[in-house]
């Protein structure tokens, strides 16, 4: 195979050409420092950027990083930051502005041809804009008139279920609570959110197994665990502050096992930037003791193999199981043992893609550890069997009593900074009856009881002309959702689409017959209301709730806070409402007082959230209280899934690049995977490439076949040889979302199966 990745290549006009150089350096460290410096210079933020860094993730009046949901350091670390968090904040704080003059120069048809990077790179939105179909331009509109447009559209619906209210994970708790209150007072539970595409499987599995939809561990548990199992997680890019926990675990002698089809940079070694001595001496720390590479979708089989090995060990050494814990706190153990006995090692090896000997290495680590944490992310959940896989993780934890004690338990890694808080505070299309009862009693409304629609079913309803008004509270729905062309067409069938945003993105140029852009404050900006500067709260991946206070002057005097925007829409749509919308917005403490009466675990909210580091929402399962039908932790006993593929077919997983946050693209580089100047690529196993006559950087066509037999294609992507198991492939979202059919979602969780797309890859025809 020709090693063209070692060449510096430019085209005839001198433009940078794609490069591929396998990455062999530590994660973070000087590479991250260099990348951040270049980014601050590019965004022209050499002063405000570093100033913001010193306030980010601080308990004393700082703001919460709008990036990932990894918890803040509990010991007062002053530089509790990471490369991608700094980029995310700087991207928001940019001096670039995208106002009426910009929209006057460019038609929406033109903007729809721009790249995702180019759209967001125009800078911060400055004032409300409404689409004019006659001119094909967005034009200024006053806030009052904008609220009237939305309010009238909602009030005129013949059925409130013809509206859908989408939520991105960046929305603070107070705005979240008002948003769901407005939707339910209108009469709908159509509250799709980004969790529907990410961790829906985790919530449903944990709820069924433990009676809580969240993990049970906190950051202190990570600091005391004897073994950490990290499954389907790319820590260095998606939760970079996790690298500190992994490095510290390795240094204290804990075992760290990574399970991922790709051995990512964060699963090898790192230099933590705030460890000044190691930075100065270029001394890295390992972040793993064992790396296992299952085939895509093989996690459940691998975990079953570890459990089977534990049960076999228990026949020799009964202490391999925590028999007392199992007898006292669990139900269904014998059924689970039977299904493990019935699962042969041949089946486990075939379906996981990992040798029995290597699985037994992981099992020995698990048996030798007194306290184990298992952490996972979308590599586990975005499959047909995502719920079963998470329940298999819980099964393994239960075997050795790794629950309800220090240093042990399940720990899902959430992506966006407040996505867990969104669900806690009411963004749920399947709300619990008890929650609705409290909402009705405290807020004086009659909330609907029938379930609403999630993300996938909202898009399908758009195509049936059942959704007339779509409101997107943050995020980039058009790009984040599966089956891109189908999603675009659904949005375009709506009568009105409303996007509450900080920057221009794809969802503004793929819109309904009428469309509004409502610009809001960013997390870094001061929120001035009648009672003074306001704070908002967020909940991290480990159920810690704390305050966030902006420190920067708003990008425009015309921006409004998200609570104020929601209240403005609600007043216009519900003119007879008894809810004191304006009163709430004057002082967010008033919202929190109401939340304290409605939400379990939020009692005395205003006082507790102002404590140093905030407070942790109690997780009953951590106290060995299981809100399940049996009152016990429930084992799950199911057969391994049959995920076989036809000859010549690969299983493709979508993933992020390192220089990306969700649908926000910072550049076309992916440093940790060795890629420069390229996003339209597919990572493949070298043998799979050779079988197809494909060499590095060859143009290839990718054809996905959906469950219903329909096909979706991408043309002339570049093939990159990578260390991925045979029969597997990977590429970047959102570009590859087009390959995941709208009907290809899990029957267990309704999540799009974006990490299990069946594709054929072949050489493109000569140009």
UniProtKB/TrEMBL annotation:
Protein name: FdhF/YdeP family oxidoreductase
GO cellular component, one term: membrane
The keyword Iron is annotated on this UniProt entry: yes
Molecular-function annotations in GO: 4 iron, 4 sulfur cluster binding; formate dehydrogenase (NAD+) activity; molybdenum ion binding; molybdopterin cofactor binding
Keywords for this protein: 4Fe-4S, Iron, Iron-sulfur, Metal-binding, Molybdenum, Oxidoreductase
Region (Disordered): 1-28
Compositional bias segments (type: Basic and acidic residues): 1-22
Cofactor(s) recorded in Swiss-Prot or TrEMBL: Mo-bis(molybdopterin guanine dinucleotide); [4Fe-4S] cluster
Pfam families: Molybdopterin, Molydop_binding
Domain Molybdopterin oxidoreductase: 124-500
């Amino acid at each position: 195979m020709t090693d063209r990745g070692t060449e510096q290549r430019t085209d005839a006009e001198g433009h940078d050409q794609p490069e591929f150089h396998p990455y062999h350096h530590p994660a973070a460290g000087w590479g991250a420092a260099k990348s951040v410096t270049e980014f601050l210079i590019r965004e022209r933020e050499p002063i405000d950027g570093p100033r913001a860094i010193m306030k980010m993730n601080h308990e004393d009046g700082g703001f919460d990083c709008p990036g990932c949901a990894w918890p803040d350091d509990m010991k007062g670390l002053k530089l509790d930051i990471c490369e991608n968090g700094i980029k995310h904040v700087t991207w928001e704080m940019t001096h670039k502005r995208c106002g009426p003059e910009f929209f006057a120069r460019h038609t929406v048809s033109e903007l729809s041809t721009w790249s995702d990077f180019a759209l967001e790179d125009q800078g911060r939105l400055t004032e409300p804009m409404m689409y004019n179909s006659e001119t094909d331009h967005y034009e200024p509109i006053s806030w009052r008139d904008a609220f009237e447009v939305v309010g009238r559209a909602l009030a005129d619906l013949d059925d409130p279920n013809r509206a859908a209210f989408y939520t991105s994970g960046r929305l603070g708790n107070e705005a979240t609570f008002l948003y769901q209150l407005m939707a339910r007072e209108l009469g709908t539970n159509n509250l799709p959110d980004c969790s529907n595409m990410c961790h829906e499987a985790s919530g449903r599995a944990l709820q069924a197994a433990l009676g809580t939809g969240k993990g049970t561990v906190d950051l202190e548990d990570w600091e005391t665990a004897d073994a950490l199992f990290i499954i389907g997680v790319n820590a260095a890019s998606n939760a970079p502050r996790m690298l500190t926990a992994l490095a510290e675990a390795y240094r204290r002698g804990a075992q760290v096992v990574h399970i991922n089809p790709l051995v990512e940079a964060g699963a090898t070694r790192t230099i933590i930037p705030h460890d000044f001595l190691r930075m100065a001496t270029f001394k890295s720390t390992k972040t793993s003791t064992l790396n296992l590479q299952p085939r895509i979708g093989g996690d459940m089989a691998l975990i079953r193999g570890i459990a089977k090995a534990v049960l076999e060990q228990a026949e020799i050494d009964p202490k391999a199981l925590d028999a007392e814990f199992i007898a006292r706190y669990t139900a269904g153990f014998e059924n689970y043992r039977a299904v493990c006995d019935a699962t042969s090692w041949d089946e486990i090896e075939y379906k996981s893609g990992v040798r029995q000997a290597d699985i037994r290495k992981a099992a020995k680590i698990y048996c030798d550890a007194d306290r184990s944490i298992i952490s996972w992310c979308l590599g586990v959940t975005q499959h047909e069997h995502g719920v079963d896989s998470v329940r298999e993780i819980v099964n393994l934890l239960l075997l050795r009593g790794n629950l309800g004690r220090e240093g042990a338990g399940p720990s899902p890694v959430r992506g966006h900074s407040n996505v867990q808080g969104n669900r806690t505070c009411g963004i749920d299309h399947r709300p619990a009856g008890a929650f609705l009862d409290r909402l009705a009693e405290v807020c004086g409304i009659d909330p609907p009881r029938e379930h609403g629609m999630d993300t996938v079913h909202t898009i399908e309803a758009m195509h049936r002309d059942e959704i007339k008004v779509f409101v997107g509270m943050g995020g980039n729905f058009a790009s984040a959702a599966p089956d891109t062309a189908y999603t675009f067409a659904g949005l375009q069938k709506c009568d009105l689409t409303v996007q509450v945003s900080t920057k221009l993105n794809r969802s503004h140029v793929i819109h309904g017959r009428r469309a509004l852009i409502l610009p809001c404050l960013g997390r870094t900006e001061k929120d001035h209301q009648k009672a003074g500067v306001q704070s908002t709260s967020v909940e991290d991946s480990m159920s810690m709730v704390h305050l966030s206070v902006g420190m920067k002057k708003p990008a425009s005097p015309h921006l409004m806070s998200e609570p104020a925007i929601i209240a403005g829409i609600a007043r216009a749509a519900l003119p007879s409402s008894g809810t004191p919308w304006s009163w709430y917005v004057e002082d967010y403490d008033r919202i929190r007082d109401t939340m304290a009466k409605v939400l379990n675990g939020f009692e005395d909210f205003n006082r507790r959230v102002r404590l140093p580091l905030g407070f942790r929402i109690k997780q009953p399962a951590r106290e060995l209280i299981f809100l399940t039908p049996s009152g016990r932790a429930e084992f799950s006993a199911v057969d391994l899934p049959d995920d076989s593929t036809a000859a010549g077919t690969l299983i493709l997983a979508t993933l992020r690049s390192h220089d990306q946050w969700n649908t926000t693209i910072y550049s076309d580089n992916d440093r940790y995977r060795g890629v420069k100047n390229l996003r339209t690529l597919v990572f493949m196993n070298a043998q799979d490439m050779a079988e197809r006559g494909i060499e590095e950087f060859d143009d290839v066509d990718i054809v996905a076949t959906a469950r219903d037999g329909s096909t979706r294609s991408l043309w002339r992507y570049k093939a990159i040889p990578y260390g991925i198991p045979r029969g597997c492939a990977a590429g970047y979202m959102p570009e590859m979302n087009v390959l995941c059919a709208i009907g290809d979602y899990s029957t267990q969780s309704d999540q799009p199966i974006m990490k299990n797309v069946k594709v054929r890859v072949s050489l493109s025809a000569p140009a």
